[in-house]
Amino acid sequence: MQPPQPGSLNTALERNIEALQRRRRREAEAASFQERVAEAITGFTGSMRFVYLHLAAFGFWIVANLGLLPMIKPWDPSFVVLAMIASVEAIFLSTFVLISQNRMAAQADKRADLDLQINLLSEHEVTKLVAMVSEISKRLGIGHVAGEEVEELKRNVAPEAVLDAIESSERTAEGAAETADR
Fold first, then answer.
1. pLDDT tens digit string along 65-115?
2. Rounded CA separation 19/10 (Å)
3. Would you put residue 67 in left (φ > 0), alpha (ψ -120 to 50) or beta?
């Protein structure tokens, strides 16, 4: 089966894609200078250019300090300076990565909140549709095959009750695990 042509997406999908692109541009523009610097550094350090640069620099350092280049006198024969440079670089790089991850986690939290809100709205709408179809079938005299299931589906789900049940289940599982460990 051929994929749909670019112009064949429905208008709601096109509108949603454009809205997401606008949102991402606004978020990128709203990033602080420090966040943009951290993102740029993380982007560069996560590239093959960074790997090649380090291979060349560290390779040269090691070869020169092993005395394999007769025109260059070794300046760090024990590689202590190289180790210190690599350690300081690792400290800064890990900090930049954490800054970028924190920003991405905040964006992921926003998307998760949006997904949750949409899912709750969809659940509410489906519950109402089930109730309406059930009422229509009653008026038309069409019998229900799965009466109990339909009645259950017609009940609204309270998100707080679901979260409470999940937390209770997790506490029970943790308690059972602790008891088993003793």
1. 999 999 999 999 999 999 999 999 999 999 999 999 998 999 899 989 889
2. 14
3. left
